[in-house]
Amino acid sequence: MYKYVAKYFLINRVYKFCGATAFPSFLIGLVAFIFSAYFAIYILPADIEQNEIYRILFIHVPSAILSELIYIFLAVNGFIFLVWRTKIAAIFLNAAISIGLVYTAIVLMSGSIWGKPTWGTYWVWDARITSTFILLIQYIGLVALRSSFNSRQTADQILSIVAIIGAVNIPIIKFSVNWWNTLHQNASITTSGSAIDSEMLIALPMMLVSLLFMSFHIFARNIQYEILNRTGKTAMMREIING
Amino acid sequence: MDSIETVIFTYFLSISFILILCLSSYIRYLNMLKNCQEDLDD
């Protein structure tokens, strides 16, 4: 199983795949974002309680989903790197950190703007917001750690360990609204149904997909950077660059 | 504060963050590629 999967993740194959897909992914993502944003802002009807401001939901929720999923992705890759010493897992881990950082910043920024008219304040130290803020600190910590070691092997090991330990914050973020009394509302979409009207709901997956495509562009370019940075003046680099 | 302008501003700010990261990742990669090609030429 491992050998079967590993053959698709050879460094030069991954480099070529990223090179071929990065730009189309960016274009698709940008067009989809413009379409989704237009749909969310101008086509969907206003909410009966929150009027226009509820439209922030369509950027806030997909960013929140991605910020948490990316952290899980980091932890999984950290685990794979520590257990199997797979170089590509360390490359994936390093390549995804900055994307998670930006989405977490977007979640907090959009949530603050949304909070002012609905809660009467930009910020409150409730469980959901505080745990998301801790996630932001974790991402900043990973970015700082990445460049704090002379040895790349040591940096990858430390990053992996920190990413795995930090993953404990993800269920805390998810269930914070159930475990504690929070100003932040409970989940609108659960396994038993959605509190959001189906007409409005469609913009959420549209925005999520558009952000995924744009994130892939960043991820692919970061992977290519990491591969070039790690191969040094080797025959593999010659092979990678010359195709 | 609860106007459509605030919503548009939030979307604009969010996409700006993402586009800046897209651009910086691409420039960082291009610089690294250029350095590697110079190294190989040497």
Query: How many β strands of chain A by DSSP?
Result: 2
Secondary-structure content class of chain B: mainly alpha
Strand content of chain A: under 5%
What integer is the average pLDDT of chain B?
A: 92
Helix content of chain B: over 70%
Number of DSSP helical runs of chain A: 10
Strands of the widest sheet of chain A, in order across it, are: 1-2
Whole-Å distance between the termini of chain B? 59 Å
* Strand count of chain B: 0
Write the H/E string of chain A, N to C: HHHHHHHEEHHH
Number of structural domains of chain A:
1
Give a short account of the largest sheet of chain A.
2 strands, antiparallel
Instruction: Note the beta-strand portion of chain B.
Output: under 5%
Biggest interface: A-B, 40 and 27 residues
Helical/strand content category of chain A: mainly alpha
Tally of contiguous helical segments of chain B: 1
Protein name (chain A): Heme exporter protein C
Subcellular location (chain A): Cell inner membrane; Membrane
GO molecular function, one term (chain A): heme transmembrane transporter activity
InterPro entries (chain A): Cyt_c_assembly, Cyt_c_biogenesis_CcmC, Cyt_c_biogenesis_CcsA/CcmC
